[in-house]
Amino acid sequence: MEAEIHSLGSFLRSRRERVDPRAAGVVLVDRRRVPGLRREELATLAGVSATYYARLEQGRDRNPSPEVLDAIADALRLDTAERDHLHRLGSPASRRDRDRPVAGSVRPGVRELLGLWSNFPAFVVNARRDVLAATGLAERVNPGWSPGSNLAVFTFLDPRAKETYPDWDVIAGQTVAGLRSASATYPGGDVGRLIEYLAAEDATFAHLWSTQDVYARTIGQKRFAIKGFGVITLQFESFSVDGAPGQTLFVYFPSRGSSDETAFARLRESTSS
Question: Whole-prediction pTM value?
Answer without folding.
Answer: 0.83
